[in-house]
Design a protein that fits this description.
The protein contains ten helices and nine strands. With 286 residues, the chain is an alpha/beta fold. It has a single domain (9-280), classed as Aldolase class I (TIM Barrel, Alpha-Beta Barrel). The longest helix is centred in the middle third of the chain and has 18 residues, at 91-108. The chain is globular.
C-alpha cells in the first residue's frame, strides 16, 4: 500500500526512531518469516523475526511502547490461526502454541501482547503462562471482537497469510452478529484482558460503542489495511481531500469510544494535530 512497507530489522529500527521523532509513542509488530510450516514454529521461536525485531527496537528506542501481534497465521503454511487437522482448526490444541508465542514475545521485551487468533480461551492461556513465568506486568490487548472481514485483503497479501483452504469464518465473527460480539468481549474480559479491541473499526463503530459502554478497561479499534487503502485510492484519484477524510475517519473512531486507535495513518494524523495546535496558538506534548 502507499506509504507502507515490509522492513528488515535494520530498516525497522530507523523507521521506529523516525516515527518516535514525529510523536508516535507505540507500535505493533507483525512478522513475515523466511519459511513457514504446519505448526507455525516461527511464531514462538526465540530467534523468530518478531522476537528479534522486539529486541532491536527495545535497544534502539527504549521508550517506545512495543506491542506484538500474537497469532500463528503469518507462520503457518496453511495460513490458519491455529493447529489444523483433517481440514479443521483445532481450538484447544492451538492454545498452547499461542501462549508460547506470547511468552516468547514478552521474554524478548514486548510491553503488550495482542492475541488475534480468536481461539476460545486464548487470553486465559496466555495470562496463566505469563504469570507463571514472571511476566505479570506484560499486558494483553485482546482482539476480542474480530470480524471475518473483506477489509483485511491488502495486509493478507503483504503478509502472505491468506488461508490455503477455506476461510476464517469458523472462528472469526459473522458481520451481522453483534450479540455474540458482546459474549466474546465478556469472555476475554473475564479471562484477564487488559485492553479489548474491535476490528475492523469504521464499519463496526456501533459495536465499538457497545464495548466501550459495557467494560471498564481501555478499548482499542483497528483501522485496518482495507480501510486505509480506500482513503488512499480515492485520494489518488482526486475524488477526496485525503487529510480531511483521514481526520474525519479517525475522529469517528475516537468518538465511538476508542481509547487506542491502531492505524497506518498515525504519523500523518500526528502531523495534522500538531499543525492545528500551532494554528490555534496552543501548546501540547504528543
Amino acid at each position: 500500500m502507499p506509504g507502507v512497507f515490509n522492513l528488515s530489522i535494520d530498516e525497522l529500527t530507523k523507521d521506529v526512531a523516525a516515527a518516535q521523532d514525529t510523536g508516535v509513542r507505540s507500535i505493533i509488530l507483525f512478522g513475515l518469516p523466511e519459511s513457514k510450516d504446519t505448526g507455525g514454529t516461527g511464531a514462538y521461536a526465540e530467534d523468530g523475526i518478531v522476537q528479534r525485531a522486539i529486541r532491536a527496537v527495545r535497544q534502539s528506542s527504549p521508550e517506545m511502547i512495543i506491542m506484538a501481534d500474537t497469532c500463528l497465521c503469518e507462520y503457518t503454511s496453511h495460513g490458519h490461526c491455529g493447529v489444523v487437522r483433517g481440514g479443521e482448526v483445532i481450538n484447544d490444541e492451538s492454545l498452547d502454541l499461542i501462549a508460547r508465542t506470547a511468552l516468547s514475545q514478552a521474554a524478548a521485551g514486548a510491553d503488550i501482547v495482542a492475541p488475534s487468533a480468536m481461539m476460545d480461551g486464548q487470553v486465559e492461556a496466555i495470562r496463566t503462562l505469563l504469570d507463571a513465568e514472571g511476566f505479570e506486568n506484560t499486558a494483553i490487548m485482546a482482539y476480542a471482537v474480530k470480524y471475518a472481514s473483506g477489509f483485511y485483503g491488502p495486509f493478507r497479501e503483504a503478509a502472505q497469510s491468506a488461508p490455503e483452504f477455506g476461510d476464517r469464518r469458523a472462528y472469526q465473527m459473522d458481520p451481522p452478529n453483534v450479540r455474540e460480539a458482546m459474549r466474546e468481549a465478556e469472555l476475554d474480559y473475564a479471562e484477564g484482558a487488559d485492553i479489548l479491541m474491535v476490528k475492523p473499526a469504521t464499519v463496526y463503530l456501533d459495536v465499538l460503542k457497545m464495548v466501550r459502554e459495557r467494560f471498564d478497561v481501555p478499548c482499542a479499534a483497528y483501522h485496518v489495511s482495507g480501510e486505509y487503502a480506500l482513503i488512499k485510492a480515492a485520494a489518488q484519484k482526486g475524488w477526496i481531500d485525503e487529510e480531511r477524510v483521514m481526520m474525519e475517519t479517525l475522529t469517528s473512531i475516537k468518538r465511538a469510544g476508542a481509547d487506542i486507535i491502531l492505524t497506518y495513518y498515525a504519523r500523518e494524523a500526528i502531523r495534522v494535530l500538531k499543525k492545528d495546535f500551532s494554528r490555534s496558538g496552543a501548546t501540547a506534548q504528543s
